[in-house]
User: Fold these one by one.
Assistant:
Number 1:
Amino acid sequence: MDPLEYLKNRLEPEQFEKIRAIDNPELHEFLAKYIDLLNPAKVFVCTDSKEDEDYVRRKAIEYGEEKPLAMEGHTVHYDGYYDQARDKARTKILVPKGVEVPFVNTMDREEGLREIHEIMKDIAKGKELFVCFFVLGPKNSIFTIPAVQLTDSAYVAHSEFILYRKGYEEFKRLGREAKFLKFVHSAGELDERKTSKNIDKRRIYIDLEGETVYSANTQYGGNTIGLKKLAFRLTIRRAVQEGWLSEHMFLMRVNGPNGRKTYFTGAYPSMCGKTSTAMIPWENIVGDDLTFIVDMKGEARGANVEKGVFGIIQGVNPEDDPIIWQVLHSPNEIIFSNVLVKDGKPYWNDMGIPIPDEGENHSGKWWKGKKDAEGNEIPPSHKNARFTVSLEAFPNADLEALEAPCGVRIGGMIFGGRDKDTWPPVREAFDWAHGVVTMGAALESETTAATLGKEGVRTFNPMAILDFLSVHIGDYLRNYLEFEKKLRIKPKIFAVNYFLRDENGNWLNHKLDKAVWLKWMELRVHGDVDAIKTPVGYIPKYEDLKKLFKEVLNKDYSREDYEKQFTIRVPEFLAKIERIEKIYRDVGNIPEELFKILEGEKQRLLEAREKYGDYISPFQFE
Ligand SMILES: Nc1nc2c(ncn2[C@@H]2O[C@H](COP(=O)(O)OP(=O)(O)O)[C@@H](O)[C@H]2O)c(=O)[nH]1
Ligand SMILES: C=C(OP(=O)(O)O)C(=O)O
Ligand SMILES: [Mn+2]
């Protein structure tokens, strides 16, 4: 049957008219196919109107996926106890025969499509299906990518309204021109707590060729919010094919001397500090997770893919995160997920104030000391518990930069991860290629609760993107190295490490020290301070940091702290190079330049070791 004809018969007239207003046969076909497959009792089509958004918000509560909290605009949502993080094992890239994507799970495309279509048959039976339109990046700009989401979860649709720019009018405007991404989600059968029941049939399948992502029997945002980490797999591929960058990066403004504004991006794996860095009170946030970077007249211009924050709540406390704290305690539209609730108020781990001994959390009724089926004590909130809120709620958001159709010029790009023993807190690359290879491509980080599985395992995670890398790493890196050639003004590349520890496992830095590293990097972008040349890049001079610690944090920064933090740890660096080189040798199809750069770094380290020994004080290099 003709898709429009089918939709006309299947939808209520009011809903059908909204679809008919978009002149795009590919969209009609897609909608007809999946409405038929999922077989919901009812379909609601969201336009950009306030009424439609209100409808979704109301339904999230009516269907029990969210519960209102005491403060206006606040709700709580729970994911199933075993559905609290990204499921890497059951996330697969569907590849046509002959295509190789190392490091991530792949599956034959035909077979994967068959399986997921079987799982999704009649999966939304008896439920309401929401059809939502959004765009990635600012509207009507070089960055814009339209996307359509089908979901039977009002919570997922509601989250997307908070996190993304509305796209119904864009679809209407673009008509047949719209080259859109497609997301099909169903939470599947729900239990009495309204959480996905059939976790064994949880699947996240990414069809690159059809630019479609299927997600079934899960609710956790990282697995379900189509425009976030699911779209990311698709945009990385587009970027590599088209010669731009789609990155797992925050985007922020660092305020330099005399009102100077410098924009930075930062790529750290999930739970390694993107949101907390972009939220530093005296700087300005543009985005905290995903950035598109394009070349425009020889400049690298960046834009936030999103317009909201799906942030980790654990550890948010009034002292270190005053702005987030304030936002979370004001009547903004916020979805709290997997937190402890008592008398209508949300609580979370390490929030810096006393919290109740009982209430409701992601395990149901909760009391202090409660154990799960595996005998593990259940904390008040899940480690990966989150808050979802629009950037408009933040007094430190740079909303002008957020909506700028040409994005903002990027002055610096930062890479970082959880590294207890190798990288110093901050350093600068010698040049683009050195940074891309030794800081981006060589990134390793300890695993966290953002993904299911063991925590604290040092893992190769180039550009903090490995979980999402939908193309061959060699092609991805080649694109990165090539990108430089399009640039007249090149961003400086930096590496940070907030997670250095001493022999006893104590952190070597305070959470707010990153504010100082940012100011130093800002000065470096403009050549305002000198730096010390080491075998692994430039590091700050003690005097400059001492001054900045005083100015920024009103702290006295001791020579001892500096020396401990910035000691060049030659054996650790060498071991790392060896690990990284082996990984790239084994995988094949890697640009030769990468090996040359790693070899250069190794030689410089060996020479330095000859002269100064294994652990070299930064003062030695001055
Ligand atoms: N020790 C330490 N922990 C940090 C630091 N910055 C952030 N964290 C913690 O790391 C976790 C994840 O941070 P977040 O910024 O949300 O990471 P994202 O997922 O990359 O956005 C939170 O629990 C933070 O409290 C830091 O400088 N030092
Ligand atoms: C949504 C996620 O993002 P991040 O932890 O990077 O904020 C995730 O990893 O599931
Ligand atoms: Mn984050």
Number 2:
Amino acid sequence: MIGLILFCVLTILCVIWAWMVYVKGGHHKLPPMYPGLLPIVGHMHLLIGDGLSLWRTAKSIAVEAMKHGGVVTVILGYRVYYMITDPEDALTAANACLQKHFAYDYAKSWLGEGLITSSGEVWKRHRKLLTPAFSLPVTLNFLEVFNSQSRKLVDNLKVHVANGPFDHTVYLRSIALETFCLTAFGITGFEDKNFIQKYMHAVDEILSIVTQRFQKFWLQSDTIFKLCGLQKRHDELAKILADMSDKVIQRKKLARSNGTYTSGTKYKPFLDLLLELSEDNALTDKEIREEVDTGIVTGFDTSSSLLSYIMILLGTHPEIQDKIYQEIKEVFPIDRDVEKEDLQKLVYTEAVIKESLRIFTTGPVTLRYVEKDVKLKNYTMRAGSQCVIMLFGAHREPVWGKNVEQFRPERWLDPGMPANPAAFVGFSLGKRSCLGKTYAMISMKATLVHFLKRYKVTADDSNLRLRFDFLLKPVSGHEITVEERV
Ligand code: HEM
């Protein structure tokens, strides 16, 4: 009897599920289904596991998409996901679907309506207001910070010279976050000398909670998230971070209103630019705080992860390291800081950065909600579904030619490559592409110049194991060794 009841319940659930997946969403034909679909759970079982298995699954989905013209379907529960690698379809989807996937909401009690998490009119207004704050002239003001921070990094690494392999990611993360705090808040803003360390630990912990919630689908239930204590810790951390940023903002605001304010730095910190906007009532204090925190969190981990991959790739390919070193030596025959005029002379260095980002796409995906039907080349995405633009997959499409897995910066020196410029999506693409691209490129160039002038790096990327947790992170095999150049 119980068996019969169970059978009937399961049958009804399967019928409802099939109706929601295949009928309710609309009449448009779905792209080929990724293998492993089960009734009711769909492909949800493939997400179980750690970040390593998630990355294996993501890569396998991208391969399947490429086999089928650049789009496949994945079903999570009853939700339809279009998984896209085709560069043209990726651009269409990126521009047509400006609303983020619900997973971004998990960071909202911390980042609020900051650029990365917001959608709709709020996003549009903020994007327009903030674009000038990320422009080339503003970023060039930060060169002094980029130079001094790069020198600090190089000095910190001295203890590892001729001392065998070590984990360089720890150093890169810490310096990158410090650089972002300096350029965002301005150095004189800190009463507390440990401000940056405290801020970094809180950012690390809250990001790990947000990531867990995204990966472990049972934590997506508010009740379970609360019951296992993660909600409480998440809220505590969000408050710590908000209070820290608010304190700096309030002090600066007060000094501005009573006329005692000077930034104390030669450059104008990002926060000061936002405070100017608030004087025209364009942004509230809360919005300023959310955008400052968003800038820091979107910027520091992405840049430091990419730099760590660049060092591993250069350490694995000594002939490429020799070439970039030759370029750096030509532009900087004596020991001096990187100046504005040097940046465009670093052509091979730029090729190395782009090629590294192509191979190790630090922000591997962007997830969007499909608000209205969107026509791709061969399919129409149904309103109410989700789409995942697989940025790392687009970097392996046939448009890149043969040997897509090979690290070959020379491909960027050929003016005809990539044949379709939309194929390079390391900084995402379309209207919601990365706002900090210029900042990232300039700061990474400065770091590479100072690092490579002082050290020769050795590594072995064949041991590298990666995990997917919003960003692409190394798990093991990423250590490098450094020796001083003579
Ligand atoms: C190598 C370094 C970087 C990489 C690879 C990178 C990559 C990306 C990617 C893939 C996105 C899309 C994310 C998504 O849709 O979920 C994005 C968005 C964004 N990035 Fe970056 N980023 C980098 C550095 C930076 C820096 C340094 C900043 C700030 C100074 C920054 C600020 C932003 C912002 C504000 C957005 C949201 C844009 C919007 O939705 O309108 N990024 N970035």
